[in-house]
Amino acid sequence: MSQLLRVVLAVVLAAPLAAPALAQQADPGPAPASLEELLRQIAKVRDADKELFAERQAEFNAAPPERQQAMLAEATARRDRLEATANQLSDTFSANEIKIGNLNGELRKQANTLGLAPLFGLARQVASDVASTLQQSLIATEFPVDEGAVGRVEFLRSFAADRTTPNPEQLERLWFEIHREMTAQGRVARYRAPVVQEDGKSTDSEVIRIGPFTATSEGRFLRYIPSLGALSVLPRQLPAEFMHVLGDFEQASSGYVRAVVDSTRGVLTGLYIERPTWLERIELGETVGYVIIVVGVVGAVLFLYQLVNLIIVRIAVSRQLRNLDRPAADNPLGRVLLAFKGDPNRIEEDADIAELRISEAVLREEPKLERFQAFLRLAVAAGPLLGLIGTVVGMIITFQSITESGSSDPRLMATGIGQAMIATVLGLGIAIPLLFANALLNSLSRSVVQILDEQSAGMLAESIEKQRGV
User: Fold this and answer.
1) Which of 13, 133, 147, 204 would disulfide-bridge 75, Cβ 3.0–4.6 Å?
2) CA-to-CA separations, 419 to 345, 394, 398, 416, 423, in angstroms, rounded
3) Is residue 362 a contact partner of residue 452, using CB atoms and an 8 Å limit?
4) What is the spatial distance between Cα 338 and Cα 325, in angstroms, rounded to a whole number?
5) CB under 8 Å to 404, separation ≥6 — which residues?
6) How far is Cα 260 from Cα 243, in angstroms, rounded to an integer?
7) Greatest CA span in the chain, whole angstroms?
8) CA gap 297, 340 in Å, rounded
């Protein structure tokens, strides 16, 4: 027998004889933790297989020709038996497939005879619709799935996809899941469930659920994450008025109490938490927004300062009007009276000179009374112009994002449009209040100046009368 024949016979003989040993060597042990470990396990099994094959080949080559013939005959007989067994099992499997198909056909025929086929189709359609609803329902957190059991969503999806005739247990569970969801939607439940905190860790917390709408825990609103099947704390809580209602609601144990219910099952809550705060809106305005705010703050400070000053002056002038014979230097009217009546010799002065002295005293008081009004008028005019600059900058950013991305995605344009709108709002926001503030200061200052003009005209008339009487 040639060397080539010996090698071929060794391969044929080694395969069936080495099967048990290969089964033992092929056990990789624990699952690999990385791809590198998996490659090492594969290489180890391959080396063991080569080593075993070499041993079998050496054993076959070392045997005498008579023993080689016996080993070859034994391996061939074993192969034939395994092939016969495989063919028998294949025939049995095919026969069972045919039998199962015939039985299913008979079952469908009987179901059609009884009128159950439309009912089963409706049950599958209902299961498909309910599965989508239950997957988004936070009620699932109240009914955790037991270890090794099939969850309600998985069951409903498999039931809807199955085309075989359902058994009573499947129909009963379909009814049970629908009924349990309907019942839970009308209850306010308190239970313990895992809650994902802000740091990403899950803690077992007490949860209060209002139907399928709202869930709260420890004074915070929660949201349901369908992909995780768990509740998580909202990254930003609702405004203060809702938090006060939540505090009273969690402390209640019975009776009727106000509560926060999101009828859209989280859509409105998401809009609330995504709404930017005033600080975030101001930051969106960037440099132009900060300039507008600085102008507005300076204008507001100057307005308040001058407003207090004019109120004090107005009170002092009113007091001086009741005591014209005793002028005081702590108010504009008193200083005008002192400028005219302070020196008795001035009574003999010519009327033109007296008029000039009175006008000088009044003009000396007007700048103090009209102080900061020019800046306020400037701020009123500059506010919208600065807002227009921010609007142009925001539109430039918007067009740049469209050019860079090559699409008009609203999410890409939101930053630029937001900056444009915020700058416009800030500009108008400082211009309109300062416009009213400037009008108020102008009214107060003009009223005081009017009193000074009236009293000046009266003093001048009195001076002329005295001169003519002399």
Assistant:
1) 13
2) 68, 5, 9, 5, 6
3) yes
4) 10
5) none
6) 9
7) 169
8) 41
Q: What is the pTM of this model?
A: 0.53
d(CA 305, CA 362): 22
- 3-state class (DSSP) for residue 347: helix
Cα–Cα distance, 155 to 180 (Å, whole number): 15
Q: How many residues does the chain have?
A: 470
Do residues 250 and 243 make contact, with C-beta atoms less than 8 angstroms apart?
no
Kindly report, residue by residue over 288-309, the tens digit of the pLDDT. 888 888 999 999 999 999 999 8
How, if at all, do strands 202-210 and 188-196 pair?
A: antiparallel
What is the Cβ-side half-sphere exposure of residue 181, based on CA atoms within 13 angstroms?
21
Evaluate whether 430 touches 296 at the Cβ level (below 8 Å).
yes
At position 424, the amino acid (one-letter code) is T
**Cα 57 from chain centre:** 69
| Coil vs helix vs strand at 205 | strand
Q: Is the pLDDT of residue 6 over 50?
A: no
